[in-house]
Structures are given as structure tokens and as C-alpha cells.
Design goal:
This protein is an alpha/beta fold. The chain contains twelve helices and twelve strands. Helices cover about 50% and strands about 20% of the residues. The strands form three sheets. Strands 3, 4, 5, 6, 7, 10, 11 and 12 form an eight-stranded mixed β-sheet that branches. The C terminus is likely disordered.
Length: about 325
Amino acid sequence: MNLKQLEVFLWVAELKGFTKAAKRLYMSQPAVSFQIQSLEELLGVKLFWRNEKNVILTEAGKLLFEQAKQIVAHSHKIKSVVNDLKELKTGSFTIGASTIPGEYVLPRLIGNFHRRFPGIQINVRIAGSAQVEAWLLNREIDLGLCGTLISGKGIECLPFLTDRLVLIAPPDHRWKAGEEVKINDLIKENFILRESGSGTRKTFEASLARSGILKEKLSVVMEMGSTRAIIGSVEAGLGVSVVSSLAAREPLLLGLIKEITVHNLDLNRELYAIRDRSWMNNFAAEAFHDFIFTGSPDNQGPSADKIFYPCFVISILSILMSGAGFPLASVLTAAI
């Protein structure tokens, strides 16, 4: 028994004739008769009584009619639901992100994606890069954004944004803002760093190693799982740190911390979109992955300035206007 047989059966029953059903289905009458005959042979019963004017359902035909309507209707519903998934009218996926892309990149990406595909539900998990990798390998997330290159069978790891790490110090630190210090000068400082396994820390330690400085030589007085907490600790004078420029830009411009340049120390890194191609089969997740690279308003993918600038402008306006006694809403309205 197949769906086509049931659909032909229903039309013959509804229109009370083989010829009428054939016209409605754009089939020949022999083809309609063949479908009904095949169905009757399969079930071992007669489904219609035929007379000169029309056809009438038998007792078995009446029972099948009610069941067939439900089966065909349910089949159409399944097709509709699947089509909605394919057309991104509905669906859901889970994305895991390390701290920097999760807090400074992902919200804007999701906002732009949601405006285009409002029916898609996105679940977000934020943790360190090592945890994001574990989530992906355990198939707990559909996609990941992180600051470390991940390898493995079936794993696709594509760079989508260049992130610059910066050395930051308290405002009253002996180093002057913009001053260039030597790499060996870092050994004398107390560092507040992200936990082992974070993309930021791996990049920093790898950069030091390329310059001949072992990570064991650093004086790490504190480890934190939050970049915001690290910046707050640096503001409080507890030490220096290396953090993403995305996270440091606002407190730098507000004078809460200062940036120090390190001579011949490359602190650039890539942020990566990761997925497991061996099992990836989620229409919405695939669409979001493509959107990361091609979905920005100018079709050039995300950039640090586009991701950060709008949020920063509002923050600065809020601080300045509140100090001057102006309501922020009126300023934004005037600006728009």
C-alpha cells in the first residue's frame, strides 16, 4: 500500500466515479482503475460497488475512507513541516561559543540572522574553547565559535574573524599608555589570565614561546573564567593581562585601563567557526554557518568594528549624557 493508492481511492470515493477522479488527478481512467484494483488485491476486499451512474463504497471501503483521510492528511502535514524546515520558516539549533565570540560577536550575528529568519530558535552555550570543542565532539551542539584551531575526523574549522589581543595595565601602572616594552619585561609583572584551555591564553602563551619565553616564567597570580572579570581586576590594580581588543576597547577609551605595546610580539589570532561535517544535518544550523561568512549587510562577513561599534557608541553616549544631565533617549532620537 502506498500514498498514491490512498489518494486515488479518496478521490474516487469523493467524486463517486472513476472518470471524474481521473480528470481531477490528470490521470487516465485505466490508470485510476489499476490503482484501485491493486489496493483491493492488497487488502483482499472490494472497496466499491459499481452501478450505471456511479460507484458506492462497500462496508470495507467506508472503514478505509476514514482511515485514509487521516493518513493522507498526516502525510501532507509531514511534507509541510519538512518544507518549512528546508525554507527556514521554522527550526532550531544549538551553538556553543567561547567567551570572546560568545559575548562580543555572536549577539550581533544572531540579531541579524533573526531579522531574516524570525522563525528559527537559537540556543546558545558559552564556555571556554576547550569546552566548546568537547561539546562539538560529543554532539551536544550543532556549531561552535572559538579562538583555537580544532582538528579531528570530520571537523571543519574555518576562520571568520581576526581578533587582536592587547596587553592591558591599570591606569596608574609605571608603564605609560602606548609605551613599547620588551618581551622580557613581562616576566617582572603579575599576570591575571584566563583559565588553561581558553583560546586567549593559548594564543598568548604560543606567542611568548615563539619569542623564546616559556609560559612557566610568567608570574600568574590569578586565573579567571571571565574576560570582563579580568579587566575589572586590572582596573583595580591587581595586575596586568592580555585580553581581546573586542573586550578591552570600551574600558580603554574610557581610561579605565591602558594598552601597552610589546616589541616584536604578535598577538593576532583568528576566531573560528567549527562544525562536524560527518553528522551535520540541520537546515537552520547550516544556514547560520553560511550567514556567518556571507550574511552581513554588505555581504562581506562580520568585522570587529561592525560588531563592536554600535554597542560602544550607545555606552559612551549613556555615560556622557548622564553626566551632562541629558536623557539618552532624546540624544539617540536626535541622532537618528
